[in-house]
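hi! just following up on the protien thing from before. the input was this:
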Amino acid sequence: MNKKAIIRNVILVLAILILLIVLLVNLGDIKSIWNVLKNANGWIILLAVGFLLLYAIFNQISLMVLVRHRYKEIKFVDNYTISGSEYFFNAITPFSSGGQPFQAYALKRKGMGLANSTSSLLINFISYQVCLNIITVVFLILYYNNVKEQISSYIWLLIIGFVINLIVMLLLLSIGIIKPVGNLFIKLFDLICKIKPLRRFQNKHDRVVSYVNNMQEAFKEISKSIKIWIIVIVSIVLAFLVYYSMPFIALYAVGVEIPFSDLPYVMALTAFTMTIAIWVPTPGGAGGVEFAFALLFSPYIESLGYHDSKNYALAIMLIWRLLTYYLLIIYGFVLYLLFEKNDKYKEDNLLVEEEQTI
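and the predicted 3d structure came back as:
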């Protein structure tokens, strides 16, 4: 992604922030929301920031372990900054699609072979999808009836989001494990590209074949490195659990009295929020995430005895969203800048050494 594209996407993210404010104005009473935020406990919000950093680290560990396993020459600082840059590039691209391409490019700059970097990124992505679906299934088993009772008219959004995630996971697993399915996927792609409006994608045939082959190689690698994969799975699960618990902290921050025993349910509501918003094509699922959060949390807060539940839900959503989206963007952008600065510093030193040798 070039600098112009980055600037364009950052402007888009700022526009989304304006959209978020407009949504707050239209969905709730801005004065009431401000009063809730004004009385929020700053120390508890600071605790939420700590949880966010904990989430970021747990989430980065998975890719760092995979990269280090395949390429031991990489330095810790490069591994850390490359893995963390994902938060920036995913946040500014539709369907969170920008992180992996940049990471593959950055790892190549650090001397890691494309096959190894692609394999590491694919294993990480597959592991992410597996963990996401397992956790969502557990929450659906435990709390589906509760949620259905609260949002009966919109429960289909949750079902569609879950089905999309499940299909993506099953497709990845099938392509990676069953070779004929991978071949069928390639043939299906070629067949679709024969449709007149889609013929322009025919030149992507080799990339699709390469993707399928890399996917199958990634699964072979998993079978040879079960211990590594277990570490990856554990780190991703911990990251999800920390991420899903953050609205619980935000509830306390704005003064909503909530029993600790409700923590699993709040985590489930957060998981369902992200599941509902999966189909929204905007960067970071903007618009969909905010709508889903207010939809799911308003009835819950009202059940706790807070009649102004919608404005409480919107205030909590704003805190949670500013932390998990905008603060993560800043975190990822800082790591991206550190990577570029560190890389340029090494390049400059190499040039100096070459000149001195000459």
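Residues 3-357 form one domain.
The chain has one domain: 3-357.
cheers
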